[in-house]
Design goal:
The chain is an alpha/beta fold. Helices cover 39% and strands 13% of the residues. It has two domains: 144 residues, Alpha-Beta Complex (Aspartate Aminotransferase, domain 1), CATH 3.90.1150; 233 residues, Type I PLP-dependent aspartate aminotransferase-like (Major domain) (Aspartate Aminotransferase, domain 2, 3-Layer(aba) Sandwich), CATH 3.40.640.10.
């Protein structure tokens, strides 16, 4: 496989030209990635040349609408779904909340939803609150030692009452990549729909959702080199089955049924810059010129994952053998995202502050993952040190991180 050209990659991100952001190592990407220049340029252009109500007959309005449509169409093609199966919202948390309200209206008391304790709270809480409406909430629990979700445990929770299974593509602290297709097949065989939280996975390569098979796939553009938008894929069969949550006159539009408020026109248009970035990486690294958008996305996905796996392996080796700290999740790079959480037995925010003094930007806390931390015996008030990176991280930054950890830990 072609090796990722880090110099080219970093040239696509204005942040690395900043004296501060470009000099310190950025290891809090799970909280939000840097935006690529294509997104910044599109957002700037929209605010300076297109900031009018879209879809009116005059030129600026037509261009605004075309850019919004372009974002939806191009992202849908990369994700392997129909254009109107992609919806935008202010955040993944907000999109999840809207979905939960739709399921609340559609489901009957006594029916069940399966959730996990591996999830980010903002994306499991809306489902759990449906217990107040008489919906049974069943929890798929992680292994308290490893944080692993065993599909065999899910099978024991499935029966004819279960209407929905919700789980993360990967956890924002455990980092293990869950087998989405296998889990989806189990749920579908039991007659349940599937909702996957892809927020912590998508930054490491947009997945081909059509091949993975879930009915709903959610991720955040601002963690995927884009603007602050939540992106939701919902397949047509389910989207048309659930009650409309938008304006009544939008009930017939799948991409508007789960958008109660007016969309952020500029940020939606800027999301096309994410597709621009994928195309730029594909073309620079010698991808097939005639490749489909989905094939381009897969090519770039594999480029990103190979780079991240190469950089992650030495970090995991160093941390898994270190006394006085506990690495959460797998110690093998191939099976996890480059989101690494450490339980050091003391205040994690204080450790992050010391790393900042050594040119390392990292985070300490519970990261809204209190349920899995508690399940694994970690005090959420004490938290974990989280070191998260993406494909634009360099070997030099990993080396600097390891040296800083030697000093601090």
């Amino acid at each position: 496989m072609t090796k990722l050209d880090s110099q080219f990659v970093r040239a696509q991100f204005p942040a690395f030209a900043d004296p501060v952001l470009g000099s310190d190592g950025f290891f809090e990407n799970a909280g939000g990635s840097f935006p690529c220049r294509f997104v910044v340029d599109r957002l700037t252009r929209f605010y300076t040349q297109r900031k009018v109500q879209p879809y009116a007959p005059y030129a600026a309005s037509q261009l605004a609408g075309e850019e919004m449509d372009e974002a939806r169409t191009r992202l849908a093609a990369i994700l392997g779904v129909a254009g109107d199966e992609v919806a935008f919202g202010p955040s993944t948390t907000a999109n999840t909340y809207v979905l939960a309200q739709a399921f609340r209206q559609w489901m009957r008391p006594g029916e069940a939803i399966v959730v996990t304790n591996q999830d980010h709270e903002a994306n499991t809480g809306p489902w759990r609150r449906l217990a107040d409406e008489g919906i049974e909430i069943r929890e798929w629990k992680v292994d308290p030692t490893t944080g692993h979700l065993d599909p065999a445990d899910l099978e024991n929770l499935l029966d004819e009452k279960v209407r929905l299974v919700c789980f993360p593509h990967c956890s924002n602290v455990v980092g293990e990549i869950n087998p989405v297709t296998e889990i989806t097949a189990l749920a579908h065989a039991a007659g349940a729909f599937v909702c996957v939280d892809g927020v912590s996975y998508a930054p490491h390569g947009l997945p081909h959702v059509g091949s993975l098979g879930p009915d709903i796939y959610l991720f955040s553009a601002y963690k995927t080199y884009g603007p602050h938008q939540g992106i939701m894929v919902i397949n047509r069969a389910l989207g048309e089955l659930l009650p409309n949550q938008g304006h009544y006159f939008n009930a017939g539009s799948l991409d508007k049924r789960f958008t109660p408020a007016g969309p952020d026109h500029a940020q939606i248009a800027a999301c096309a810059g994410m597709a621009d970035y994928i195309d730029a990486l594909h073309d620079h690294h010698g991808g097939e010129p005639a490749a489909t958008p989905a094939a381009r996305g897969a090519f770039v996905h594999d480029l990103m994952r190979a780079q991240e796996t190469r950089l992650l392996a030495p970090l995991l080796r160093s941390l898994s053998g270190r006394n006085g700290v506990r690495l959460l999740g797998p110690d093998q790079a191939e099976g996890r995202a480059p989101t690494v959480a450490l339980d050091a037995g003391r205040d994690a925010e204080a450790i992050a502050a010391k790393l900042a003094q050594r040119g390392i930007m990292a985070g300490g806390g519970d990261f809204y993952a209190t349920r899995v931390l508690e399940a694994m015996g970690v005090d959420p008030a004490q938290g974990v040190l989280r070191l998260s990176f993406t494909h634009y991280t360099t070997q030099e930054e990993i080396d600097n991180l390891l040296n800083a950890l030697d000093d601090v830990l």
